[in-house]
Amino acid sequence: MIVEVKLPEISENVNEGDVTKVLVAPGDVVAVDQPLVELETEKAVFEVPSTAAGLVTEVMVKAGDTLGVGGVIARIDTEAKQGASAPAAATQPAAPAEKPAPVSAESPRPSAPAASPAPAPAVAAPAAPIAETIRDTVVAVAQEQGTPAPASPSVRRLARELGVDVNRVRGTGPGGRISAEDVHAYAKSIIAAATSGAAAPGVATAPAGAGVAARALPDFTRFGEIERTPMSKVRAITAQSMAWAWNTVPHVTQHDEADITQLEAARKKFAPRVEAAGGKLTMTAILTTVCASALRRFPDFNASIDVARGEIVHKKYVNVGVAVDTDRGLLVPVVRDVDQKNLTAVSVEISQLADRARNKRIMPDDLEGGNFTISNLGGIGGVGFTPIVYAPEVAILGVSRAAMRPVYANGAFEPRLVLPLSLSYDHRLIDGAAAARFLRWVCEALEDPILLALEG
Would you please indicate which residues are annotated as catalytic (active-site) residues? Predict the structure, then answer.
């Protein structure tokens, strides 16, 4: 029997991805859960496993294709024996070059409009498709009459979190219904316009001097040989997210130091016990647990700002993101409900998430829902840095390399292991005094862990 293996639902708000690598060919025998293709979305790169076992008769995609949820990846003969020949059709291209890649059955993802540094020559614009005209009319009438935009509560919540006016978003669904992908595309268009100096759809042009327009790069070939390589999707999305965060969040960074001499001795003592459980007792794992207690004690750091509604969203759960350096760029897996787990469980989970991130097995759901982020560069070096807040979070902790320093105590200098910490925060919600108290509490908890039992 021929079975079609389709791309399953990936994650909320993720309806498609780019095929970066095809891992099987017609004639291969595959098992259930064996990877078929490597897919890159806006949030991660991961392998898509087979849902059936048998002989691959056709591979329907190739590297570079965009694959939507429900799109067919391959056809598998579940009754064929190993070594059997694949049908002749399998030797032909998966699809004609002019045929578009399969997309989500719900709604196609509109691409963000490209901003041009200079006006393009005037050309006759093609007539807009009737469906698009109807959708635009629905949105325009809704805006004029004050009618609520056709969007579900979850889509409205997403728009609020991104700071987007949902009434200005053009829906691509039936009757102009707005999807999460429409909101993301609109937000990206705003970011692109902000970085290029152009106006985004529905956004008033900023006054002169309000922003810096992108300018053309010089001709680098005048000075020597160059090589251009396209950005990966992870890098492109990171660039957009960081530009948006930097332009949206008024950043301030608070620096402090913790004496971790005793903590480091304890870490080395108990590390074998955690390794036996399958994890690593790292400073990142310890900080994740400490910060979870700090987030409970200082709830404004476990919150987000809803600018559209003029509200502060305090979260009753504590999810901490841990930045992981990978060959594709920085990924931030999220450890959920940290405050409900012991240090061993947190250490094991961080080890597993980091391994999946580096080996392209991380899933989009693993990268969502963070309330606070920790970025540890101590393994590389440095004495301090100013991390960018990962909005809509309101704070991020940067960790640098611990070093032995002479510390004056009890009438004499003693060698102590000192850990530099840097807390960047959103000054719209968090004042400098609150940030100083938060970071000092973290330092004191590292210096004397009994504080966690007393006040955590």
Answer: 427
